Amino acid sequence: MIHIHHHEDVVCVEGIVSRQGRDSSIYVFLTDGTLIDTGPKLLEASLIPFYQSSAFESVVLTHSHEDHVGTAAWIEANLQVPIYIHEKGVTRCSRPADYPEYRKLTWGVRDSFDAHSLGKSFHSRTLDWKVLETPGHAQDHIALIHEKTGRLFAGDLYLGVKTKVILREESIPTIMNSIRFVLAHDFQAMYCAHAGYVPNGKAILQKKLEHLENLTGEILHLHSKGMKADEINRALFPLQLPLVEASEGEFDSIHIVHSILAAYEQHESIC
Question: H/E element holding 95?
């Protein structure tokens, strides 16, 4: 099921996916002849009519996770529209889907497709965009920004102010650096792949950074008192979310603690 919203000159296509007993939103955006992300395979049947009725000449993927690239193969096969992604995602997209079963059940099994490597800038129909490398959530994560119109397409950089669980391979310190990098640019509206249109995007993204900075301080303070990672995790995240069990620990709050302590220990060893 999809819902279509319009904000500024952006078509926001909201897909609804049920998981863990609740509905979740995942967005596809269309602006100036460019489609940004393609949603999950699970929504392909709902998205195809939108693709067929819309005019776009290019696709930009914010990263290679399956909820963002799931219908790219259909677009490639049926519309012959070029697809672009960070160079680190090109090979991954060309290979068969390789992610856990619970994610396949949630988002569907995406087909392989050929993508072109993004440079430091991207030209849509009439606009020149900056491509900002924003790793942390994924190694191939990027954001698109057009400072004159004040628009930021943030992929999964934001998601929400408070972070409660992350993937095992994610890094909170790296995400914080990516947020700082983005905040150094001029923008107002933020288009988040899961939160949708955020009109005061810069202020909200700043709040997320402040939350992560405070969380980092709490973790390092408890660590300085001799607490181990699992003790810190229980103290700061006493409630285990259903996603932790469903993902067999691939998503977990302990990964937040581990990533922050790992960065701290690396810094200490260098100093």
Answer: none
